[in-house]
Amino acid sequence: MAIKQTPLTDKELKKISKAILKEHAPGKFDILNFYKISKDEVIKGVFCPVCISVSMKRRDGAWVCKGCSIKSNDAHIKAITDQFLLNNDEAITNKELRDFLQIKSPHISRRLLDSLSLSHTGTNKGCRYHPPPNYQNITDLNTSTAKLPQ
Ligand SMILES: [Zn+2]
């Protein structure tokens, strides 16, 4: 059986590439749904990069592990990255971050968000911080200069 091959017109190609790009829209991958995990099952808090326990507490401008006592200046970066991932790449508010990092102070939360120079929309309590493109490719989490890639 012979298949008749006709080259696609420019218009058709454009239509196809548009459709592919539309389907490939990042941020629409529901990771919790994919792994059949409910939101309540997600362990909140900042993980210790050394002993991997989720017991880091904010003290004197740094994260201190209750398990192994190590100090970290940037353990929150991994947690914020995780939160964006769990949030399907949606923007987060200061309140949502506080809840996820298990910290009480909106000021500390604000400072952490500002330190990452995230783009944001809205004002005051409605201010939402957006994940930078390719934030999932962050590799170097253990240096004090680690930042989310812009
Ligand atoms: Zn530890």
Topology record:
Elements: H1 10-23, H2 31-34, E1 56-59, E2 62-65, E3 71-72, H3 75-86, E4 92-93, H4 94-101, H5 106-115, E5 120-121, E6 128-129
Antiparallel strand pairs: 1-2, 2-3, 4-6, 5-6
The structure holds zinc ion.
Zinc ion is lined by residues 48, 50-51, 53, 65, 67-68, 70.
Report on this model:
The structure is a single chain. With 150 residues, the protein is α+β, with helices and mostly antiparallel strands. The protein has one domain. 32% of the residues lie in helices and 11% in strands. It is built from five helices and six strands. It has helices at residues 10-23, 31-34, 75-86, 94-101, 106-115; strands at 56-59, 62-65, 71-72, 92-93, 120-121, 128-129. The strands form two sheets. It has a three-stranded antiparallel beta sheet with strand order 1-2-3, with no helix packed on it. Strand 5 (120-121) and strand 6 form a beta hairpin. Helix 4 (94-101) packs across helix 5 (106-115). The longest helix has 14 residues, at 10-23. It is elongated. It starts with 9 loop residues before the first helix and ends in a 21-residue tail after the last strand. 16% of the residues are buried. The model is unreliable at 140-147 (pLDDT under 50). The structure holds zinc ion. Zinc ion binds at residues 48, 50-51, 53, 65, 67-68, 70.
